[in-house]
Specification:
The protein is α+β, with helices and mostly antiparallel strands. It has four domains: 3-163, Beta-Lactamase (2-Layer Sandwich), CATH 3.30.450; 174-444, Rossmann fold, CATH 3.40.50.11500; 472-530; 559-708, no CATH class. The chain is 36% helix and 13% strand. It contains 21 helices and 13 strands. It has helices spanning 3-7, 46-50, 122-138, 146-158, 165-169, 174-181, 184-193, 205-216, 236-240, 252-258, 281-284, 300-303, 305-308, 335-350, 369-396, 419-425, 429-436, 458-471, 473-540, 567-581, 705-708, and strands at 12-21, 25-33, 60-69, 81-93, 108-117, 197-201, 270-273, 291-296, 311-314, 319-322, 603-605, 642-647, 661-666. Strands 2-1-5-4-3 form a five-stranded antiparallel sheet. Strands 7-8-6-9-10 form a five-stranded mixed sheet, with helices on one face. Helix 3 packs antiparallel against helix 4. The longest helix has 68 residues, at 473-540. The radius of gyration is 62 Å and the shape is elongated. The N and C termini lie far apart (154 Å).
Length: 713
């Protein structure tokens, strides 16, 4: 072996097979490693770490853990350090095995394949380990370990020297950690630096372990310097650390070293074991174990959580419980802290995909795991610089002259990081190491200012507006629904209102029609009674026309009232009947008034204004009677609006008004003198037509329609 190989031993220590014995429990069945030596007996807890509690309930599960390496005579390494183990465990039914020895007494056989390395290269190893373990179980013969030997040789060739830091981050679930815990990710980050006792609990062993490694990877450079995390007694990092005296700003490693990074969160008195079995609880209760970060799948620890933890992190329900009151105030996030971590959480959530939670969904930097680590590195450097500036202010002031202060910094920037947290951090071991190996004026290199101090960026404002609009979506839908319902109600109300108005109108119209009909009935009844009285009076009068009078047969006609609604048609029918029956031979001597004997036709006198005409009696019928019309008098504005037809008995005394009968008609109802339908060339006056001038016609515009439809004959 060359000097280079001696200086840098292979990263792979060995590969082994762990089986579960029904009486002895988990035990190492096979080991292959460097120098051909079985090193499994150095770690009595390795079988329990590789077969976690509850792993039998999963078809395939993974476990990450740490091992304390203590050198023995003949070993290549001479200093105690930390080794890292990763196991893949599966199970198979016993009846499917091709070869089954006497030790197999249960229905299932459970085994795990373990790889032990000097660095936590879990990501690259996991993929190969998964393939080999499945193939080892598919061959159904655990006595054939050729594939296990091949795996070891292949891994030694792949990882024969140091690897890059980015390879150590491969396979971690940092995005899922931020997605699950949101702002509480920053709480866990700041809690890790305060060196409390942190217990992770969960039923999924792989997620439980990878979440802890993801949290540790947020401290820049710490994932490469975990050589002291397996035991509280290890402190090699501080023993070999030197203060940086030079700085190359273009070199990230030089900058981190000058800023005192990585912070040794697992130095002397600390312990880190991602999966801790119950058999290792004794180590947690030792006096030299001051703080730790451990994980467990056994619920017995939950029943004694105050005894074993200051902070409990439950992976199953994504909760962080601060059990020790001493850490409550220091772990309160400031406004700047909350805004800063929310911006990272939203970046992860915006690019989250359930199918591939390690990929931001596209080829972008924002929201990726590198983006998260870069933001936390920026935050931690600003925090360290602000703490140094706070120490500077306390050492040399106040008051300080403006020349002694940073011109771009107002007040104490450490307050944006929570002064309670800073005061608590100054009591820890990693702060002691940081303060010992760093310069007093780090704030001249990195600005002592919270990364989220000041106003929001344009992207942050847009994101917050978008988020608020999304939060208002339910309220907007409710408001729209309310407006829609209200509009329907208003429309229905107005519709009902107008329907009621129309119903009221219809009711009022029906009521008025009923009133009109009732009034007409009353008027008709009153007229009928009045006509009957006049008829009885006419019968009792000596001037009444009787059936035994000497009036000629053409004079013994019945004078009836027209029932037609048209006055002209009624008068026409009366005139036609008179023409058919014939009038007397005598003609009227005057167009206005005529005196005749027993055979003369009735005289028409438009100047006379007798009282209302009484209907004549007839031996055959009693004609209906119309109410009396108003007479035209000398004082009337239209004296010739009416005409009076007098029916005289030639044998009666014309001077006696009681012996005469008359009917009063409107002038426009009188048939014209010249009959167009008359073919006779004789004078129409012989037929009893009375010439009426059109100037005598005055329509009854001022009377009702019922009055216009009435006509006396």
């Amino acid at each position: 072996m060359s000097d280079d190989e001696t200086a840098s031993p292979p990263l792979i220590v060995g590969v082994c097979v762990v089986g579960f014995h029904h009486t002895r429990g988990p035990e190492v069945e096979f080991w292959i490693g460097e120098n051909g030596e079985d090193m499994s007996n150095r770690w009595p807890n390795l079988p329990f770490q590789s077969l976690p509690d509850g792993s039998h309930s999963h078809e395939e599960d993974y476990s990450y853990f740490t091992l304390l390496y203590e050198p023995q005579p003949g070993d290549v390494a001479t200093e105690p350090t930390t080794y890292f183990g990763i196991s893949c465990n599966r199970q198979i039914r016993a009846d499917k095995l091709l070869y089954k020895d006497a030790e197999v007494t249960r229905s299932t056989v459970q085994k795990s394949v373990v790889v032990v390395a000097r660095k936590p290269i879990f990501g690259p190893i996991r993929e190969k380990l998964a393939v080999v373990t499945r193939a080892y179980f598919l061959q159904a013969n655990f006595q054939d370990r050729t594939i296990i030997i091949t795996l070891y040789n292949n891994l030694v060739q792949l990882f024969h020297s140091d690897i890059a830091e980015t390879d150590l981050y491969n396979g971690m679930t940092l995005r899922e950690l931020v997605h699950r815990f949101k702002y509480k990710t920053l709480v866990l980050f700041k809690a890790l630096i305060l060196e409390p006792r942190i217990l992770f609990f969960g039923s999924n062993t792989e997620l439980l372990c990878s979440s802890q490694f993801s949290l540790v990877s947020l401290i820049p450079g710490l994932i490469e310097r975990l050589e002291d995390c397996a035991s509280p007694s290890l402190n090699s990092y501080e023993d070999t650390l030197k203060k940086s005296t030079s700085l190359r700003s273009s070199d990230r490693e030089s900058l981190l070293a000058f800023m005192g990074l990585p912070l040794q969160a697992f130095g002397k008195g600390g312990l880190f074991n991602p999966y801790t079995p119950l058999q290792q609880l004794e180590t947690l209760t030792k006096a030299d174990t001051k703080f730790y970060l451990i994980g467990s799948t056994n619920s017995l620890l939950l029943s004694q959580k105050e005894k074993f933890a200051d902070i409990l992190v439950n992976i199953d329900n994504n909760s962080v419980e601060i059990l020790n009151p001493e850490f409550e105030s220091p772990l309160q996030l400031t406004t700047c802290d909350r805004k800063w971590i929310d911006s990272i959480s939203h970046a992860v959530d915006d690019t989250w995909s359930d199918e591939d939670n390690n990929d931001p969904g596209s080829i972008v930097f924002t929201g990726s795991e590198d983006f998260i680590r870069w933001k936390f590195e920026e935050y931690l450097m600003a925090l360290l610089s602000s703490v140094k500036y706070d120490g500077y202010l306390q050492k040399y002031g106040p008051p300080l002259s403006p020349e002694d202060l940073l011109p771009t910094i107002d007040g104490n920037p450490a307050e944006d990081f929570n002064m309670n947290w800073i005061n608590r951090w100054k009591l820890t071991n990693n702060y002691r190491v940081f303060h010992k190996f760093t310069d007093e004026e780090l704030f001249d290199v990195v600005m002592p200012k919270h990364p989220f101090t000041g106003s929001f960026s344009l992207e942050e404002v847009q994101r917050k507006l978008s988020q608020q609009m999304q939060n208002l979506a339910p309220a907007r839908d409710a408001i729209a629904k309310t407006f829609s319902t209200g509009s329907q109600r208003v429309t229905t109300a107005f519709g009902n209102f107008w329907a009621e108005i129309e119903a009221m109108r219809e009711k009022e119209r029906a009521r008025r029609d009923a009133q009109k009909f009732a009034m007409r009935q009353e008027n008709a009844d009153a007229e009928s009674v009045a006509g009957t009285d006049e008829l009885n009076t006419a019968k009792a009068s000596p001037s009444s026309v009787s059936s035994g009078s000497s009036v000629s047969s053409r004079r013994q006609h019945h004078i009836t009232l027209a029932t037609d609604s048209s006055p002209v048609s009624s008068w026409t029918r009366w005139a036609q009947e008179r023409r058919l029956r014939g009038f007397g031979s005598r003609k009227p001597s005057s167009p206005r008034s005529t005196s005749h004997g027993s055979d003369s036709p009735p005289s028409v006198d438009s100047k006379s204004t007798p009282p209302a005409a009484s209907p004549l009696s007839s031996p055959s019928s009693q004609p209906p009677t119309l109410p009396s019309r108003p007479h035209a008098t000398a004082s009337d504005p239209t004296p010739e609006s009416y005409t009076t037809i007098s029916l005289e008995d030639p044998n009666s005394n014309t001077n006696n008004p009681s012996t005469a009968s008359s009917i009063e008609l409107p002038m426009h109802d009188v048939y014209p003198t010249n009959d167009p339908d008359d073919d006779d060339d004789s004078d129409d006056s012989d037929l009893g037509y009375v010439p009426i001038s059109t100037k005598d016609i005055n329509p009854w515009d001022q009377h009702s329609g019922d009055q216009q439809s009435e006509m006396a004959t």
